[in-house]
Amino acid sequence: MRVEQLQAFLAVAETGSFQKAAQQCGVTQSAISRQIQGLEADLGAPLFHRTTQAKLTIAGDRLLPRARKICQEWKNAQEDIRDLLAGKQPELCVAAIHSICSYHLPPILQQFCRDYPDVQLRVTALGSDRSLKVLKDGLVDLAIVMNNRFLTASPDLVIQVLYEEPIKV
Q1: Is the pTM of this model over 0.85?
Q2: pLDDT digits over 122-134, tens only?
Q3: Domains of the chain (ranges, CATH numbers)
């Protein structure tokens, strides 16, 4: 079974005609007929009563909602891949030290959510060592940590100093 067969099946089911389905799909009527015949052969059952109007058989009626779901999932998968290739990311995962999560991130994250409403944001408060571990394991996209040369000395990491904060006792 191929997606093209299911798309042809849906087109015939929706239009009630092999000719109209062919026009809708931008192919010839014989191409639609071959797709439907192949699908019927795969399933071992006729899907349409072929009279003046193509009407669904019981098997066709049972296949219809599943074919819609499969084709919708295929469309969603294609959109997800296109978005990925275009650099769109549906989720941003951040690990940060507790003080950053409590005091500095909230206004920045609010602005981020306004600027990028389609991106789901997930923030986890962890210590520096744990934040770097989940970053190295690929569980988060970025980590905001204290700059400790023993923790951050890795060729796999890109380090960017966000700000300097003096420590006072």
Answers
A1: no
A2: 999 998 889 988 9
A3: 3-85 (1.10.10.10), 91-152 (3.40.190.10)
